[in-house]
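Researcher: Structure prediction, please.
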Amino acid sequence: MCKTLAPQILSLHAALGQSIEPIEQQSRLIEVFSAILLHYADVEIRSIQSNQEHNAVRLVKEYLHDNFSSNVSLDQLAEITRLDRSYLTRIFRQAVGMPPYTYLNQIRVEKAKQFLQQGMAVAEVAIAVGMSDQSHLTRHFKRIFGITPGHYRTMSISSKTNLP
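Model: Predicted structure follows.
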């Protein structure tokens, strides 16, 4: 802003120092004020846009946590946030570090971990967390935790029985 505003201020200063027409002085003054207003209006617009993006990401995260066991589509998320699908995916990835689908799978795997600790069967857990089948759960679980859900369940159950 300073680079674009400085020449206008110098021009205004020169016009005010000379005995030129008042209309030219006023015109240059209006140019300076317009540049200042445009800069700060742009900052405000960017701030509002950033706040809307933040709210959209928050809405999506809340929705995914509340509906992890459902079949959630990107169209649903776009409708909830009133944003374009690709734009929503981009701002979500920027804010969270992954697209919404990957985030949803992480929520599902975390919930699966809790159910497995309670002793639920792997196939039941897959259905309970919204995965299409046991192999789908196994693939995501192993990618995140490095072990299969069955192995995790066995370890979890054996650690409970070894406790006094």
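Model: The domain at 102-161 is CATH 1.10.10.60 (Arc Repressor Mutant, subunit A).
Researcher: Thanks, that helps.
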